[in-house]
Amino acid sequence: MVPAGALDNPVEPRRGELVNMVRQDCGSCHGLTMKGGLGPALLPSNISAKDPDQLRFVILHGRRGTAMPPWSRFLTDAEAAWVVELLRTGLPRD
């Protein structure tokens, strides 16, 4: 059975999986606390002024000449937009 509201929010069925992906996969380069590492910090204070569409584009298509890979094989456009909002507001605490 599909949870109420899941049809309105296509990300909801994968929400937990996406949060885990951000923590593990993004965290492997951006730091497990998103404070930076191989990649820049992804804290709300670091990215809140950046264009959300540009951030979504980078998530989906990567950045040439850097270690940032494209994630379009694993994320839909809506999921990438949701990840941007998640990063702009901060990861939930466990």
Task: Jot down its keywords.
94 residues, mainly alpha, Cytochrome Bc1 Complex, Chain D, domain 2, 4 helices, 46% helix, globular, disordered N terminus
Structure description:
The chain is mostly helical. It has a single domain, classed as Cytochrome Bc1 Complex, Chain D, domain 2. It has 4 helices and no strands. It is globular, with a radius of gyration of 13 Å.
Give the helix/strand layout.
Elements: H1 15-30, H2 44-47, H3 52-61, H4 77-89
Total helices: the number is: 4
User: CATH-wise, what's the superfamily?
Assistant: Cytochrome c-like domain
- Rg, Cα atoms, Å: 13 Å
CATH topology assignment: Cytochrome Bc1 Complex, Chain D, domain 2
Percentage of residues in DSSP E strands: under 5%
Round the mean pLDDT to the nearest integer and report it.
90
The coarse silhouette is: globular
H and E order: HHHH
- Based on the structure given, which CATH architecture is correct? Orthogonal Bundle
